[in-house]
Design a protein that fits this description.
Layout: H1 3-8, H2 19-32, E1 35-38, E2 46-49, H3 52-60, E3 65-66, H4 76-87, H5 100-111, H6 116-139, E4 143-145, H7 146-151, H8 153-163, H9 170-181, H10 194-217, H11 223-228, E5 231-232, E6 235-236, H12 239-270, H13 272-280, H14 285-296, E7 301-306, E8 310-312, E9 315-317, E10 322-326, H15 327-330, H16 365-379, E11 383-388, E12 393-394, E13 403-405, E14 407-412
């Protein structure tokens, strides 16, 4: 594989369906071209940043490196379509897209719901849901697609319960989330076109516009009510701003966690000594959860745009040029992680960047850790045996994703 071929993988959704080849490419780039210019048909050119130190430096300098106008990698056609919608005031614009005081003020609306005090209050509910979903595995008769029948449902129940949405709406939210993040995947996407992607957003907005009106008329004390009735400078959020907030919470709040849970179980199956180690020492659950997050890195990238001429790792970057921060690469950086390609449930320290860093650090990180720990604390002691029952399959993506199928056979105690 050449360096240029490796660089093109960032703009190739199918690259994330072959983890071995993807990491071969990322390892090559870290070694030979850690700040690599990518110019491929269909995408506005960008610089791919693959080393942990460079990603961390960019994340922490939020004055120099801006989320706007290009927070994630998309095709030039889709970028243009979404920008046109935003210009009309009808597009998705969440805290992911924002910088400076605007980001700080909007982020504060939901932040308290994810602080330690709130997490302690949620702990009983999360453990109850973890137990319910492991019990459901017993009902499947010793074989299931762990992604489709367990991993996608458990964190969805958690985050939508936090929002206060009825369980009857959960299947709709799951389908829309998979269509949004799996837009480039033939199985989950809605055609893989800008029109398909924007139609998913339209469906999300229609649902959340109704929710906003309901919660403003009849607040119910949940996170959805908090968002609907939040005020900035004395005024309620504009309805599309509220809808954008809901979309972020409802999608990122469960898809990334479900990917980590599925990828974490696959890692334990492929590394049976680590599964035995975790079973014999439940005190390793917290470090095991961190290792699963590092191992899977469900958010594949975010983009930043330089607000001034600068350098990254000695490479000149001009004002207005965009960089792609590769989290799967940073989280396998040989300069930071000892034996980075070894799955180690006791890894410490574990300075992964899967939740980002700086002002855009993942607001739901504590909840994700709680959910992952609770599920495996319930599952591991009850697993008498587990093995693959077919080949796992990954979602084609350039942004967020992981396993879409994990067929397993198991015996539960």
């Amino acid at each position: 594989m050449s360096v240029s071929e490796a660089g093109r993988m960032f703009a190739t959704p199918a690259a994330h369906t072959d983890e071995a080849r993807l990491h071969e490419a990322l390892t090559l780039l870290r070694r030979e071209s850690p700040v690599h210019h990518v110019d491929v048909p269909g995408y506005t050119p960008f610089w791919a940043v693959t080393r942990h130190a460079d990603v961390l430096e960019i994340e922490r300098d939020h004055a120099l490196w801006l989320s706007a106008p290009r927070p994630v990698l998309r095709t030039a056609d889709l970028d243009a379509a979404l920008e046109a919608r935003r210009a009309r005031g009808t597009g998705l614009r969440s805290i992911v897209h924002m910088d400076g005081p605007e980001h700080r003020v909007l982020r504060a609306i939901g932040a308290d719901w994810f602080r330690p005090k709130a997490m302690r209050a949620l702990d009983v509910r999360v453990r109850e849901l973890a137990r319910r979903h492991v019990d459901l595995m017993a009902d499947h008769g010793g074989a299931c697609d762990f992604v489709r029948q367990v991993a996608v449902h458990y964190p969805l129940y958690v985050i939508l319960s936090l929002l206060g949405l009825p369980e009857s709406d959960f299947p709709r939210m799951l389908r829309l989330t998979q269509e949004l993040f799996g837009q480039d995947d033939k199985e989950t996407g809605r055609g893989g076109t800008p029109q398909g992607h924007t139609s998913v957003l339209e469906d999300f907005f229609a649902y959340f516009h109704e929710l906003t009106a309901e919660r403003r008329a009849r607040p119910t004390g949940d996170l959805a009510s908090e968002i609907a009735n939040a005020r900035v400078d004395g005024r309620l959020l504009e309805v599309n701003a509220a809808a954008s907030y809901y979309v972020l919470i409802a999608t990122a709040g469960h898809d990334t966690t479900s990917s980590t849970i599925a990828g974490g179980l696959e890692a334990l199956i492929r590394h049976p000594a680590e599964l035995r180690r975790l079973r014999e020492d439940p005190g390793l659950m917290a470090t095991a959860a961190e290792e699963m997050i590092r191992w899977v890195s469900p958010v594949k990238e975010f983009m930043r745009t330089a607000s001034a001429d600068t350098r990254v790792g000695g490479t000149p970057i001009r004002k207005g040029e965009a960089v792609l921060l590769s989290y799967p690469s940073a989280n396998r950086d040989e300069e930071v992680f000892e034996h980075p390609f070894r799955f180690d449930v006791g890894r410490t320290p574990n300075r992964h960047l899967a939740f980002g860093s700086g002002v855009h650090y993942c607001m739901g990180a504590a909840l994700a850790r709680m959910e992952i720990g609770a599920l495996f604390a319930e599952l591991v002691p009850r697993l008498a045996s587990v093995e693959l029952d077919g080949e796992p399959e990954w979602t084609a993506t350039t942004f967020v994703g992981g396993l879409k199928h994990l067929p397993i056979r198991y015996v539960l105690k």
